[in-house]
Amino acid sequence: MTAHIIDGKAFAATLRTRLAAEVAAMAARGITPGLAVVLVGEDPASQVYVRSKGRMTREIGMASFEHRLPATTSQAELLALIARLNEDAAVNGILVQLPLPQGLDEAAVINAIRPDKDVDGFHILNVGRLATGQSAMVPCTPLGCLMLLRDHLGSLAGRRAVVLGRSNIVGKPMAQLLLRDSATVTIAHSRTRDLPDLCRQADILVAAVGRPHFVQGDWIRPGATVIDVGINRTDDGLVGDVDFDAVMAVAGAITPVPGGVGPMTIACLLANTLTATARANGLPDPEGLTP
Ligand code: GUN
Predict the structure, then answer these.
(1) N or C end of the chain, less CB within 10 A?
(2) pLDDT single digits (tens) 250-265
(3) Ligand 1 pocket test, candidate residues 98, 104, 110, 231, most atoms within 8 A of CB
């Protein structure tokens, strides 16, 4: 058996085409969605991400505002910028690229963003809204994984899902989204016992641990759907958290790295910016972009 390869790159491209059409429709009403991205310091991976976010934002017709600040920026200076962006009517979405340089208080910075402009979905109010089933801004990477899962599997109700990793950015919100779709969800992490046995029970396995080729072929239930969120830079290039070749032989479907979840993250950031813009202008949520 060989797994179906879930083409996140193609799915993301189709999604961006649809978003561009929605942006054009908003432009006809005199509305231009705007996304502000804030990068503090010079982390090389973050610089790459921020550049592609800006490019793709402009490509679909949205306004992109990039703010690059030195690593020496103080907490007060960063908070002052966020306060300005919160007040700026041309800015519908605000993203502060993480991780922040040492000395800056990440939680305080995130919670200073207006919740309705928090296109990352990291503000404590959005986290709480997601957890309680209320209308929220939803973190981009798990939202992208959810779209791929629904597209491939249809209903997720009753399926056994194991999420590997408990980060605020991926693992925890992923678990919330799967639960909201009535999957039976387990969150596993570095202290979980008998991890291979647990993974073998999963119909859906989402790997977000940041360890290259961590998930082995014999951890996979035959026919399972495997979502690989890992982006690990190794001597062999970019690899996921899943041993792709071994898992391919057992799984029913798998996302590749690169070309799987990665492209979905930015497409969902743009989707969230569109949703935030619609809400700011009293328009209904664009269909299919929110869980
Ligand atoms: N760093 C790694 N992933 C993300 C993300 O999704 N959003 C932000 N703001 N920073 C990140």
Answers:
(1) N
(2) 999 999 999 999 999 9
(3) 98
Query: Do 30-115 and 140-262 come out as alike in CATH topology?
Result: yes
Ligand 1 atom, smallest distance to 269 CA: 6
| 140 Cα nearest atom in ligand 1 | 6
CA dihedral sign of residues 61, 19, 182, 227: negative
Task: Indicate the domain borders of the chain.
Answer: 30-115, 140-262
- Distance, CA of 43 to CA of 71 (rounded, Å): 9
Nearest CA to ligand 1 atom 1: 98
Distance 98 CA to ligand 1 centre (A): 5
Q: Which CATH class is domain 30-115?
A: alpha beta
For the entire predicted model, the pTM comes to 0.98
Among 3.40.50.1980, 3.30.1540.10, 3.40.50.620, 3.40.50.720, name the CATH number for the domain at 140-262: 3.40.50.720
174: closest CA among 134, 203, 146, 133? 146
